[in-house]
Specification:
Length: about 900
């Protein structure tokens, strides 16, 4: 196996092997763009290292061969005393993990070569500054020395010199600092800073490998659902310097605005700076457009390169570049992160430009982004006090109490408070707090600062670089223009779409995208219209492409009508138990507790017209579309009084010697029906079989409602669904009774109702005997909530709050199986049952109505296994439509 690739050997499609950065450096190299030469060590090498603790045997020689070639090309050797080749060693995983892993710059500098660099560059200060940066970065990331010790020493040097910024330190000061830094390394790491450049390089490579498994990298991967076993590649790249004076600099740029998608010049530039200074948001940058004044030649070249990249990748790219004494170098490019709104706009813009087609456009957006666009926004008309404006870094409307450190953010959010994390700037150590917060506000840094990049990735509201806000994290307060002080705990609101910061709580209004789906979108803000237009077009692409139909889980006409507006093609699950709550609960209670047939019939007679009316409304709202009505499912105790409360009532009545026969009778019945495991007890079809008349009453209500709708010239398409079936015999008994009732109603009304009867597949036994069950079922609907519960043996009501966090932390699964279908376990039962069912009955209709029906990843799975439809809650319908379209690309 080959472990090292020269930049000239790779290409953008080798991200698995070379990581995103390495693959794209190779792609740019092959496009003839100015990339400093270098090579990439593969993720395979990293995996071997992480598994065995040692690098693969062949790696050393391969690295030597590539280093030789690089040295020949550059005409100098790594760390060569009189003219050193210096390299950067950078991590680069398949998926971008901004700031999560390690990078070491300036490798190759030593006590000797620093002199050579000074001579070659004609700049002592630069050489010593580069050397102190190397020791600092190397000490911290490779040797594990506490970074603050270096920071403190740097501060002390500035204080001694009575200057405030490090650029004011001179060569002699930096030289002294190097001595100090080396001492720190010796004391803290118990070894000298290595003078051998190859040793520096090898140790840095190992450190990058190791950084794959730091806590913060693991946390980030879990958040972003990036698999833990991918490993990182390592890029060894010859150094170019942006800190060689005012004709040098470094910057980041986007080929389009990542917030709006508009074309133009977007980016930040920092003169006389090196590497990470821009991303880290350490010094304030200037807008990229100003580079035109600073260095027109490089600016023009950069614009041209950006155009080349966009046309080549056919997408928004972000880039990092450095200018070394007027010569432009490309250090990185990738298809750039963008806001959800921009993703939709860019996809349609690229279609209009003829760069991509409709199918490709669908791959450029996703359901999570659409869901984000459906979040509410601030009410612009509300009387509010704007106290600052920063950069709109990640959209959304966030309201919460101001906190100034991650620890408090986590602590307060755990106790149920909504918080806004306010920092001068964030760094990877703030990740926990950023996750806990509703939104993030910083006073420094641009669109590419750590806060902005990470928040966008998490879909979290972020305003950054709000410079007029004075953030004092030590005193936990922020001073706004005019002198008002926001203390920890004061409520603030931030708008990640406009960058505005408000004092107090700003009311929120629905998103224009929801208004559009609801059919209420008026010509509003220009910005909103453009977005709605893009969403509208992408939804049309998806609807044209998808094979899966999308239905709604809805139990009343209001939800059904909304679902229809959102594009539902029927109801996949009407949970009839929801119709028995409130006033009707007592009727059901009486039915359950009835001792005699007469009592039972009395309750059923009262329930029948109520149920029928429910269905009439539902069929009317979904006229012409299928409506799957599920007969009563939940455990009985949900309809009975709470056992403890009732016991107390009885005991009290007893002690007061008050009459309490009824209560006592009720209590005895509740005791009789009490179950240890109600979820596995008397529910679903079992209820229908042991409570005579219950299911037939429901079937009659459905049939009569359908007949009434027909008489009113409607087009009812009811499907009757039996829950929790484990064996075909259960279904056969219920069917026989149901068929009889339907025949009676048909005879009485003189109409053919064409009702179909099917079942849920939500028990492993049902899935395993699906071939038999299909004999008695015209359709299957997979109840993946219960199926997940019973396949895993996880109580669906308990586990997520109890041990799932630990499971997620331990990486047992990356996401709860109740959220995204467990393809290997639950999913294989779905696959098996679908196949067996269709073998028995080729026209068997197949759907899913568990929560997974609206989950993007699961929708793709259901498409693949050949289901006919997914059913989900009304608000998730647009997401399901989009993902069903994406699945079919
Ligand atoms: C299911 O189990 O997936 C289902 C849809 O039914 P319920 O959630 O009502 O049990
Ligand atoms: Mg169920």
């Amino acid at each position: 196996m080959k472990f090292v690739y020269d930049f000239t050997e790779g290409n953008k499609d080798l991200k698995d092997l070379l990581g995103g950065k390495g693959a794209n450096l190779a792609e740019m190299t092959n496009l003839g763009l100015p990339v400093p030469p270098g090579f990439t060590i593969t993720t395979e090498a990293c995996k071997v290292y992480l598994e065995s603790g040692e690098e693969p045997a062949a790696l050393r020689d391969e690295v030597s061969a590539h280093l030789d070639a690089l040295e020949q090309r550059m005409g100098k050797k790594l760390g060569q005393a009189d003219d050193p080749l210096l390299v950067s060693v950078r991590s680069g995983a398949k998926f971008s993990m901004p700031g999560m892993m390690d990078t070491v710059l300036n490798i190759g500098l030593s006590d000797k070569s620093v002199q050579g660099l000074a001579k070659q560059a004609g700049d002592d200060r630069f050489a010593w500054d580069s050397y102190r940066r190397l020791i600092q970065m190397f000490g911290k990331t490779v040797l594990g020395v506490d970074g603050e010790l270096f920071e403190d020493a740097l501060e002390a040097a500035k204080a001694a010199k009575k200057v405030t910024v490090d650029t004011e330190l001179e060569a002699a000061d930096l030289k002294k600092l190097v001595t100090k830094f080396k001492k720190i390394v010796k004391t803290e790491a118990g070894r000298d800073f290595p003078q051998d450049p190859r040793e520096q390089m090898d140790l840095a490579i190992h450190a990058v490998f190791d950084s794959w498994n730091t806590d913060r990298a693991k946390l980030y991967r879990r958040q972003e659902r990036i698999p833990h076993d991918l490993g990182t590649a390592v890029n060894v790249c010859s150094m170019v310097f942006g800190n060689l004076g005012p004709d040098s600099g470094t910057g980041v740029a986007f080929t389009r605005d990542p917030a709006s998608g508009h074309q133009g010049v977007y980016g930040d530039y920092l003169q006389n700076a090196q590497g990470e200074d821009v991303v880290a948001g350490i010094r304030n940058t200037v807008p990229l457009a100003e580079l035109e004044q600073i260095d027109k030649k490089s600016y023009d070249q950069l614009m041209q390169i950006m155009e080349t990249l966009e046309n080549h990748y056919k997408d928004l790219c972000d880039i990092e570049f450095t200018i070394e004494r007027g010569v432009l170098w490309m250090l990185q490019t990738r298809v750039g992160k963008r806001t959800a709104g921009a993703a939709f706009r860019i996809a349609t813009q690229l279609v209009d430009q003829g760069l991509i087609d409709e199918a490709e456009a669908l791959t450029r957006v996703n359901g999570a982004q659409l869901a984000q666009l459906m979040f509410p926004r601030f009410d612009e008309s509300a009387k509010v006090e704007t106290v600052g404006r920063g950069i709109a870094a990640s959209p959304g409307a966030a309201v919460g109490k101001a906190v100034f450190d991650s620890y408090t953010a986590v602590k307060w959010s755990r106790s149920g408070e909504k918080v806004i994390l306010i920092r001068r700037e964030t760094n990877p150590d703030d990740l926990d707090g950023m996750i806990a917060a509703e939104g993030i506000l910083t006073s420094r840094g641009g669109k590419t600062s750590h806060a902005a990049v990470v928040a966008r990735g998490m879909g979290k509201t972020c305003v950054c670089g709000a410079e007029e806000l004075e953030v004092d994290t030590k005193r936990r307060r922020m001073t706004v223009p005019g002198g008002h002080v926001v203390e920890e705990g004061d409520v603030v609101s931030i708008d990640g779409s406009t960058g505005k910061v408000y004092l107090g709580e700003v009311p929120v209004v629905p998103s224009p995208v929801v208004e559009y789906f609801e059919g209420r979108m008026h010509a509003g803000a220009e910005d909103a219209d453009e977005l709605v237009e893009a969403v509208h077009r992408i939804m049309a692409f998806a609807d044209r492409k998808r094979r899966l139909r999308v239905r709604a889980n809805a139990d009343n006409a209001e939800d059904a009508l909304r679902a229809r507006r959102f594009g539902a093609q029927g109801i996949g699950l009407c949970r009839t138990e929801h119709m028995f709550l409130g006033d009707r609960r007592e009727l059901v209670e009486r039915l359950i507790l009835a001792d005699t047939q007469a009592e039972r019939e009395e309750s059923l007679k009262e329930l029948l017209p109520l149920q029928k009316q429910d269905f009439v409304q539902l069929f009317e709202s979904m006229d012409g579309l299928p409506v799957t009505v599920r007969l009563l499912d939940p455990p009985l105790h949900e309809f009975l009084p709470d056992i403890t409360e009732l016991s107390v009532r009885v005991a009290l009545a007893e002690s007061r010697q008050e009459p309490h026969e009824n209560e006592l009778r009720l209590l005895q019945a509740v005791h009789r029906l009490h179950e240890q495991n109600p979820m596995l007890g008397l529910r679903g079809v079992r209820l229908g079989l042991v409570i005579p008349g219950l299911f037939t009453m429901q079937v009659r209500a459905i049939a009569e409602a359908a007949a009434e709708r027909k008489a009113a010239k409607g087009d009812p398409r009811a499907e009757i669904m039996i829950p929790l079936v484990g064996t075909v015999q259960e279904l056969e008994i219920v069917r026989e009774e149901a068929d009889q009732v339907i025949a009676e109603v048909e005879a009485a009304s003189g109409t053919q109702l064409k009702l179909s009867i099917g079942t849920m597949i939500e028990l492993p036994r049902a899935a395993l005997t699906a071939g038999q069950i299909a004999e008695a079922a015209q359709f299957f609907s997979f109840g993946t909530n219960d199926l997940t519960q019973t396949v895993w043996g996880f109580s669906r009501d308990d586990v997520e709050a109890s041990f799932f966090t630990a499971y997620l932390e331990k990486g047992i699964f990356g996401v709860s199986p109740f959220e995204t279908i467990d393809k290997d376990g639950v999913g294989s039962l779905v696959k098996l049952a679908a196949k067996a069912g269709r073998e028995t009955r080729p026209d068997l209709k197949l759907g899913v109505c568990g929560e997974h029906g609206g989950d993007p990843e699961s929708v793709h799975f259901f498409h693949e296994v050949g289901l006919d439809y997914v059913s989900c809650s009304p608000f998730r319908i647009p997401v399901a439509r989009l993902e069903a379209g994406r699945a079919a690309v």
